[in-house]
Amino acid sequence: MTRARGRRRSTAPMAVGALMVLALVGPAPATSSGTDMCDQANIVVSWQSRSDPRLDRPDIVLRGTGEVTIGERLAGGRARRIELTDDELRALLDFILDEKDAWSIDGEAIARAAREADPAGRGGDTLAVTTWPQADSRTTILTLDKGARSHVVEVDDLFGLTMRRPELDAAARLRAIELRLLDLARHD
Predict the structure, then answer these.
(1) N or C: which terminus of the chain carries fewer CB neighbours within 10 A?
(2) What is the per-residue pLDDT across 104-153, written as a single tens digit (0 to 9) for each?
(3) 56-65 long-range CB contacts below 8 Å, 24 or more apart?
(4) Whole-prediction pTM
(5) Domain limits of the chain?
(6) Cβ atoms of residues 59 and 74 within 8 Å
(7) Burial class (CB in 10 A: 0-12, 13-18, 19+), 14
């Protein structure tokens, strides 16, 4: 019985020592998006501009490891991969997750606001004036995945909607994310 008590006493200094080391070292470094660097690798952001149902796959896939896949439509017929630096990745994830708060963008709320603004549906599609006609199509789909958490935003005629209703903050944030992701297709 005295032996058991003696063992408990000898482990107490080790536990206190471990707590002191943790207090000195602190938690894992975090991005401003609140994602620690280990957890960041689990993030996947994908963007798709759906115009042809036969091409129902993402045009751009950004992984938390820094790997980006540019789909064949945006890469001239053959998918290609690029690797972002840690700083580029952190800046892009901060922009998407913090500044534009992609997790809070609600595609259904955007669609409701668009219907309320144009109940007769006279707005129609607006063709984007762009050097990338394949980048702006009928439906924009943004998907965020982080472990078990997933969020999908699907909006019809995003470009036209942001032109007709610039006051729709969620649509403007989604369009800004879309444009920033499209910049990746021009990345060397």
Answers:
(1) C
(2) 999 999 999 888 876 655 555 444 444 444 445 678 999 999 999 999 99
(3) 58/141, 58/143, 59/135, 59/185, 60/181, 60/182, 60/184, 60/185, 62/92, 62/181, 62/184, 64/35, 64/40, 64/89, 64/93, 65/41
(4) 0.73
(5) 37-184
(6) yes
(7) exposed
